[in-house]
């Protein structure tokens, strides 16, 4: 078995899980846990970003992007799929920020 760290890392609330070395694919349970953790992390990040002045939010997202990119690179996931995943996460956080702001909740 092989342990892999995924974005967020253990120091940023990320997760680690074990995958079979033969297939190197997470189980459905591991995939679900990963997805839930990423959703929770994205929500937490969005809640922090929305507290920034509007003119500083893109800078905040840039910091998040750099942090996630560093985690991807550290874990050997800085490839085409990792870059697409990163773009999707930043877009998701951006949408969550808009939803939080539209709801009036901060």
Figure out the total of helices.
3
Strand content: 5-15%
- Reading side by side through the largest sheet, how are the strands ordered? 1-2
User: pLDDT under 50 segments (min length 5)?
Assistant: 1-22
Derived from helix and strand composition plus strand pairing, the structural class reads mainly alpha
Terminal CA distance: 42 Å
Q: What is the 3D form?
A: globular
The percentage helix is 55-70%
| Number of DSSP-assigned strands | 2
Mean residue pLDDT: 80
Order of helices and strands, N to C?
EEHHH
Specify Rg, calculated over alpha carbons. 15 Å
Largest sheet: 2 strands, antiparallel
- How many domain regions? 1
Molecular structure report:
It is a single chain. The protein has 106 residues and is mainly α. The protein has one domain. 60% of the residues lie in helices and 8% in strands. It has a two-stranded antiparallel sheet. It starts with a strand and ends with a helix. The N terminus is likely disordered.
